[in-house]
Amino acid sequence: MSKIETIEQLRTLYPPAKGLAVDKQLTRLDPHCRRFISLSPFAVLATKGQDGLVDISPRGGDPGFILIEDDETLLLPDWPGNNRLDNLENILADPAISLIFLIPGVDETLRVHGLAEINTDEALIQQFAIGPKLPKTVLRISVKEAYLHCAKALMRSRLWDADAQIERGDLPSIAKMIQDQAGLGGPAESQPDMVARYRKLLY
């Protein structure tokens, strides 16, 4: 057997999940989930496109940047980006989403699955005001599943270990990489210039 095509084949290699691996799954946020989200400055958002492929994108802000409306509802602001709108367009066709929350220095993660709607309600948007700046939209997410995920992946990757980090100069600037991918010539924006420009446009 090489290519696995059925659940039965798959389960000959992996025994059924049981015990805490199953029992930990919740249908709403409990105090531990709420605390985890309140300390998280970074999450990964996944949606399903009409082409059947999954889009994944990072979301970040100050700890607790995703607000908890109640035990079954999260609010995620959409700040300026590249205007591809992959995830937002996906949600209009299929509201199912997944989030993974990370906290720097913590190897465990929190997974949340639910249904999202794109909202322009003024009261929701005003909750995310940073000075005079406001997000254009807010995702209102109805939580359907939530559970803590074990530390193994982050332990293997040593994600938070300072001595596992590489120098940024080990890669070309992102501008150079994208320029090469797009087949463009001419000088590319340096990484420090890009960072300086982004800092002016974060919100």
Helix content: 25-40%
Per CATH, the superfamily of the largest domain is Electron Transport, Fmn-binding Protein, Chain A
What CATH architecture of the largest domain do you see? Roll
How many structural domains can be distinguished in the coordinates?
2
Low-confidence stretches: none
Number of strands: 7
Overall mean confidence score, pLDDT: 94
Strand content: 25-35%
Q: Sheet with the most strands?
A: 7 strands, antiparallel
Order of helices and strands: HHHEEEEHEEHEHHH
The separation of the N and C termini measures 52 Å
Protein name: Pyridoxamine 5'-phosphate oxidase family protein
Domain Pyridoxamine 5'-phosphate oxidase N-terminal: 29-150
Organism: Hwanghaeella grinnelliae
TL;DR?
The protein has eight helices and seven strands. By secondary structure, it is an alpha+beta fold. A seven-stranded antiparallel β-sheet has the order 2-1-5-6-7-4-3, covered by helices on one side.
Structure overview:
The protein has 203 residues and is an alpha+beta fold. The chain has two domains: 13-159, Pnp Oxidase, Chain A (Roll), CATH 2.30.110; 166-203, no CATH class. The chain is 27% helix and 27% strand. The chain is built from eight helices and seven strands; from the N terminus they run αααββββαββαβααα. The protein has helices at 7-11, 20-23, 31-39, 86-93, 122-126, 152-157, 174-181, 191-200; strands spanning 42-48, 54-60, 67-70, 73-78, 96-102, 109-119, 137-149. It has a seven-stranded antiparallel beta sheet with strand order 2-1-5-6-7-4-3, with helices on one face. Strand 3 (67-70) and strand 4 (73-78) form a beta hairpin. The longest helix is centred in the last third of the chain and has 10 residues, at 191-200. The model has no long low-confidence stretch (mean pLDDT 94).
